[in-house]
Amino acid sequence: xxxxxxxxxxxxxxxxxxxxxxxxxxxxxxxxxxxxxxxxxxxxxxxxxxxxxxxxxxxxxxxxxxxxxxxxxxxxxxxxxxxxxxxxxxxxxxxxxxxxxxxxxxxxxxxxxxxxxxxxxxxxxxxxxxxxxxxxxxxxxxxxxxxxxxxxxxxxxxxxxxxxxxxxxxxxxxxxxxxxxxxxxxxxxxxxxxxxxxxxxxxxxxxxxxxxxxxxxxxxxxxxxxxxxxxxxxxxxxxxxxxxxxxxxxxxxxxxxxxxxxxxxxxxxxxxxxxxxxxxxxxxxxxxxxxxxxxxxxxxxxxxxx
Length: 306
What we know:
By secondary structure, the protein is mainly β. The chain has one domain (41-305): Methylamine Dehydrogenase, Chain H (7 Propeller). It has strands at 6-8, 12-14, 27-29, 33-35, 38-49, 55-60, 65-70, 75-80, 85-90, 99-102, 108-112, 117-122, 125-130, 135-142, 148-154, 160-166, 169-174, 191-195, 201-205, 210-214, 220-224, 240-242, 248-252, 257-261, 267-271, 279-284, 290-294, 298-305. A four-stranded antiparallel β-sheet has the order 5-28-27-26, with no helix packed on it. It has a four-stranded antiparallel β-sheet with strand order 6-7-8-9, with no helix packed on it. The chain is globular and about 85 Å long. 39% of the residues are buried.
């Protein structure tokens, strides 16, 4: 049996009774329907060649337009599905952006680890929103409520936390579990984020070799370290996104694959075909098509569910 399936229970449709007839039906039941939303094998729909030597982040502006950024490149670029460059923006510092996200209104936000800033691109203007004192922002995501979630590492490189901002106001800081131990490992700065439909905060903690999921209140729910079939220690998640069914998808570049788990951390499927080589940043569109930033410079559009 597939790891995930949907069941549609029968429904009863009543039928008008003719009292003059002795034998008659009072109604009918529809059939029991079982559907499996995940495809047995994912399909590569489109390859989009970008101008990056090393591509690491992708974010869906719409179902047909994608913002991207890459390593050692200070330009943020917007592409369509035909690979046409629609727009480009250079960071104000001249250094590469570490990560990108889109607000609910479609504005682009990026982090600049060199000047320790979080910046908003609005039209042709770039506005510095936040420069945290004593901390460097790295990865970020936009939430359903319009907040920003940002991973930060302290200047002494000893602590990592997730901070929630509304505009420029800090609303929440997530750093410790109930025993006072760190939720996140500090030595690696690759910690992509995504908010799930149930409002969980999902992090691909690369150095911890785990997907770390906490509730909206910051309480640890689970850590996913890969299925038993993968040798222990080889799983090192990087990119992460969530879909309309609250599934969590995370890239595993060392093994050239993408893991799909449900909102409670149960393993569902691995995407290992579609020509994946060093999959990095991830995002999904409104139809749950998956976009993968291949570190070699391509964006892949993949269908993995029905």
